[in-house]
Design a protein that fits this description.
The protein has a domain of 92 residues. Helices cover 61% and strands 0% of the residues. The chain contains seven helices and no strands. The longest helix has 23 residues.
Amino acid sequence: MAEDLYKKAKAICETNYIQEQGGPRCKQKMEEYVVESSCGTSSNLNNVELLKKNLYFPCLDRMINELDQRFTGVRADLMKGIQACHPASATFLSEEFLIKVTVHYKIQLKIQEIRVVKKFLARKKETGATPDVLSAYRYLDSDMFPTLKAIFQVAMTIPVRSCSCE
């Protein structure tokens, strides 16, 4: 992949008459100074291996670190809890995952509600209705299932809030 990237970049440079920068720059001694910016050094990216080492791998590393930061710890637990609210999920209404959402949002989960809703929605599925998150939310009565209704509401609004923050 890095080799293809290098070939494409080189072709763009050739079609636009851009010459490759070559040769290392003269090093300057900055021993007695505090430097808060780059000193004008640049990478010589005129072969595939240097491109991989100086550009491709650092970019991949930053992307992996960003994904790790976003989807570990509390975020991963919340994502699993949101997934447990989707009727097509294998973990649908799993107590283990729903508890993680309720702890984070300080909702008092009642396990009895989960058991009743599982049977209720299983009967709905038998009639041919395959609900999505919104229709499952609409099936829940506010008086009968107040905590599950709150959990589903959180599950439906978290993605919207996350996107608006991005």
